[in-house]
Amino acid sequence: MRNRVFASLSSVFASRWTAAVVSAALLIAARGASAQSLGYEGPTGVFVTPLAATAASPAKGFGKPSISYHVLAGGPVIGTWNTVSITEGVAKRIEFGYTREDHAAGDNSLSFLWRSGLNIFHGKVNVVSENAGKTKWVPAISVGGIARTNDTNVYDGQNGQSKTNGDIYVVATKVITQINKKVPVLVNAGVRGTNASLWGLGGNAPDFSARAFGAVAFVFTGPGKSTIILASEAAQQPQRIKATSSAGVSSGVLDIPTSIDYAVRFVPSPKHKLNIDFGILQAAGIINSNPVINLKARARAAFGISYGF
Fold it and tell me: Which of 203, 281, 271 is nearest to 241 (CA)?
């Protein structure tokens, strides 16, 4: 697995544009700047699911943007996906942003099903602040949306036609310190309406459906006032992919399980907004029995780095 990950990462850095952005992010990090905790698709979040929090901003007006880079080594079938995101906060309650997701093909006979990258637009509004009314058990609650364009997975249509899909979600987040003040616990739960399979990596679902997601994280103090966060997420996926004859199967029979990931976030210093993420994603294995289609994405490595100006 290690060799596959490093081979995939080398293909990602072959892109001059991606390499330039990653180099800039690392240079900024080296100077002591840091990132708002952006997720894989750009919203403020854990690794792949959004939090109710929004990007940092003043009470009035716009804040400084946050940027992030994520890479998901999806294995020999799906290939490697890498994203570069920019997210802007407004008035402590709003965020919006754009993510470009590029794809490096795998080396499996099914890899042709994943074509080019896609564009991701997102927005979120916080409607209830955490501990509103000075009530310690009130979670932060936000509503948001994600739109994906140019999702040209062949599963989505004849001849790789461009497709769009998206999510509309509501999410609640609470940091619990009443149990152990030295180890705060973050609890996150939400529901999204979506017609995207595997956040668009698997193409479109046949229909729009409600899917639940959630996360729990434990926050520890590390050496030199650093912070180490251990988290696990689960996200239900639409069970079916909108398949066509080009995929060699009947429409709608491909079966996608719930996705689970285990992640570690490292915040080197409270003085800076730098976040470094490592994760293992359990996405999908065998999704069709006749013919057998194995995506081989049950234990895939991921990396992320975020920086807030």
Answer: 203
241: its two tokens: 């992919």
Tell me which residue has tokens 């609640």. Answer: 172
The domain spans of the chain are 2-308
Using CA atoms, how far residue 22 sits from 2, 35, 176, in Å, is 21, 13, 34
Query: What CATH architecture is 2-308?
Result: Beta Barrel (2.40)
Question: How far apart, in whole angstroms, are the C-alpha atoms of residue 158 and residue 231?
Answer: 39
Residue 99 has pLDDT above 90, yes or no: yes
Cα–Cα dist 23/29, whole Å = 10
Query: Looking at beta carbons, which pairs linking 247-256 to residues 24 or more positions away fall under 8 Å?
Result: 247/113, 247/154, 247/155, 248/291, 249/288, 249/291, 249/293, 251/206, 252/206, 253/288, 254/155, 254/202, 254/287, 254/288, 254/293, 255/287, 255/288, 256/197, 256/198, 256/202, 256/284, 256/287
CB 210: neighbour CB atoms within 10 A?
12
Which residues are registered as beta bridge partners of 159? none
Does 184 sit behind a cis peptide bond, omega within 30 degrees of 0 on the bond before it?
no
Each residue of 15-58: pLDDT tens digit? 444 444 434 333 333 333 333 689 999 999 998 999 999 999 99
Which DSSP state fits 5? H
Name the CA radius of gyration of the chain, rounded: 19
Helices in 79-238 by DSSP H: which ranges? none
| 166-178 pLDDT tens trace | 999 999 999 998 7
What per-residue confidence (pLDDT) applies to 156?
A: 54
Q: Whole-model pTM? A: 0.82
